[in-house]
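Tokens in:
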């Protein structure tokens, strides 16, 4: 097996993804090993981050010491105010993920770097983690102008112009869905998924977004009165449809690239294609590794 030259980390709010990487001193890198954990930021105190990381990567550090410390490059919530250490934000317009901070570690076997997030003044907005996926995407593109959608707990829409993030917007769609589906009266009426009901809800929400709060209770009534058991599709359509209504000035005249690696990204693709939008979908975990590799090359290869 090839040796691990450096370690890539994506530390999210609810998850932790780690990859052991082999680097051939060129434009490519190879994933040697990977680990996944639900030990995201929301479950940790700041003084727990290093311990948790070492629990996962300790077996990869054989032979490392203060003279040959393993580079570890992390994006996401490790750099949040509630994370390991607060990393600064780079202000758009800019090329994302260009600045890092180096964290003093209690373990001499690792050299820890955390990537800065992005911020925007008007309207005020921030992101952490997504900027690294965006960097990975930009590094693989020839065209200079793109519209990106990154679905998630807090979905991001980013405008790429001349190879930089010129602006971005955040929608709390994933968090709203989680709250409504687990803590509201609608939790009793979720039932089963149905594509047609999802698209129907998307179209109705886009037609009259101001009636979304009214239509949400209709989901319960449909179940109680007519035994309609597709509440999860109606709810998803209402929440994603409301997001699309707010982002319509962006996508109504532009193709959209969705960056994601789960079922949620597929729902966004389905929703946008129902509105005759040209859509492509790219694996998010591949792009975050590509972005982290760009930072590794900058720090250790002067690329």
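Residues out:
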């Amino acid at each position: 097996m090839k040796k691990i030259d450096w370690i890539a980390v994506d530390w999210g709010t609810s998850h932790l993804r780690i990859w052991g990487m082999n680097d051939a001193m060129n434009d490519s890198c190879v994933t040697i090993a990977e680990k996944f954990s639900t030990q995201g930021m929301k479950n940790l105190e700041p003084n727990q981050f290093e311990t948790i990381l070492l629990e996962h990567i300790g077996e990869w550090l054989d032979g490392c010491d203060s003279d040959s410390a393993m580079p570890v490059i992390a994006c996401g919530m490790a750099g949040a105010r509630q994370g390991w250490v607060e990393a600064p934000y780079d202000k758009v317009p800019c090329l994302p993920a260009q600045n890092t901070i180096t964290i003093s570690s209690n373990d001499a076997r690792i050299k820890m770097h955390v990537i800065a997030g992005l911020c925007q003044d008007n309207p005020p907005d921030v992101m952490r983690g997504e900027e690294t996926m965006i960097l990975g995407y930009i590094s693989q593109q020839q065209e200079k102008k793109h519209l990106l959608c990154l679905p998630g707990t807090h979905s991001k829409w980013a405008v790429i112009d001349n190879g930089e993030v010129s602006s971005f917007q955040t929608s709390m769609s994933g968090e709203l869905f989680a709250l409504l589906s687990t803590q509201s009266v609608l939790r009793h009426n979720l039932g089963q998924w149905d594509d047609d009901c999802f698209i129907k809800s998307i179209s109705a929400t886009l037609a009259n977004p101001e009636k979304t709060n009214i239509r949400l209770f209709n989901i319960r009534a449909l179940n109680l009165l007519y035994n309609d058991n597709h509440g999860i599709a109606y709810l998803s359509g209402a929440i994603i449809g409301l997001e699309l209504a707010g982002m319509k000035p962006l996508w109504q005249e532009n193709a959209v690239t969705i960056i994601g690696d789960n079922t949620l990204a597929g729902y966004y693709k389905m929703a946008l294609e129902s509105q005759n939008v040209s859509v492509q979908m790219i694996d998010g975990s591949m792009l975050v590794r590509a972005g982290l590799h760009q930072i590794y090359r900058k720090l250790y290869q002067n690329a």
